[in-house]
Amino acid sequence: MKIGIVGCAGRMGRMLVSEIENSDKATLAGGTEPPGSPHLGQDPAVLAGCEPTGVAIVEDAAALFEASDAVIDFTAPAATVVHAALAAETRTALTVGTTGLSEEDSSKLKTAAERTVIVQAANFSIGVNLLLGLTEQVARILGGDFDIEILEMHHRHKVDAPSGTALALGDAAAVGRQVDLETVSQRVRDGITGARTRGDIGFATLRGGGVVGEHTVMFASEQERIELTHKAASRAVFAAGALRATLWTEGRANGYYTMQDILGFS
Ligand code: NAD
User: Could you tell me whether strands 2-6 and 27-32 are parallel, antiparallel, or unpaired per DSSP bridges?
Assistant: First the structure.
């Protein structure tokens, strides 16, 4: 499969290029960076620490979509919306890892998926996707006597909070409890907040150093506490999952899919 990487000079972009270069099932169709990027014209494989390919990083995303069987996008929300429209126009499969998308952005992705195959996951690791399933199950089994809190920590460069994965975990807990996350979520606490409201799903965010990604879902009652924790040791885990998802798109019917579909959990 010929795979293009938009944002190929980013932290995840480089991991994705390296994953493709080390795969016998995929070849690199090319990569993009936005206008003004110092990496335009460079070889994305060399940037990723691999052997030169002779491919140069360009700004023309439309050309990359034309040249690719599938494209992987770990960039920024505004760019991802444009890439989804290009995927629909060129009927190229798109794997989206970008987080921090608004509801409006997400609905644009789903509209694009009417004309092509789109896979989206806030976290492409198998362990986190297992954690999502477990969180839903535990929330369903435990009653309202257990308070649900979600704690996440990421590296100092992360620009959105809570992480897309933390929100997905909150959503899984809400589905398990048969409530709407929007109406019960407590995203920030500061100052005299008053006592915790029963049924709330709380979030807490830590940022620092080079932490790849850590998430804990706590279920706390007066007598006991259950904690489900996942720690990613390397970004390679996300790149491997995204490549697996992208290879899975071959021959699929148009539509919007998640990692749960790919791993057969849904
Ligand atoms: P980064 O800032 O290192 O990389 C983003 C890259 O996208 C940059 O190189 C930037 O120049 C490029 N970019 C921005 N706009 C572009 C455009 N219009 N066209 C082409 N390239 C463009 O960030 P990162 O740490 O690699 O993370 C990127 C995104 O992936 C974030 O939203 C992050 O939260 C998400 N992420 C998701 C997962 C997952 O498993 N789903 C894992 C890690 C990171």
Answer: parallel
Whether the pTM exceeds 0.85: the reply is: yes
Q: pLDDT for 166-209, tens place per residue?
A: 999 999 999 999 999 999 999 999 999 999 999 999 999 999 99
Which atom of ligand 1 is closest in space to residue 241's alpha carbon? Answer: 40
If you measure from the C-alpha of residue 224 to the centroid of ligand 1, how many angstroms do you get, rounded to a whole number? Answer: 39
* Torsion angles phi and psi, residue 153, rounded to 5: -135, 135
Q: Are residues 101 and 175 in the same domain?
A: no
Ligand 1, atom 22, residue with closest C-alpha? 7
DSSP 28-47: EEEEE--TT-TTTTS-HHHH
Instruction: Give the range of the structural domain holding residue 212, as residue numbers without chain letter.
Output: 126-232
Our count of domains for the chain comes to 2
Let me know whether 61 and 158 are in one domain.
Answer: no
97 CB near ligand 1 (under 6 Å): yes
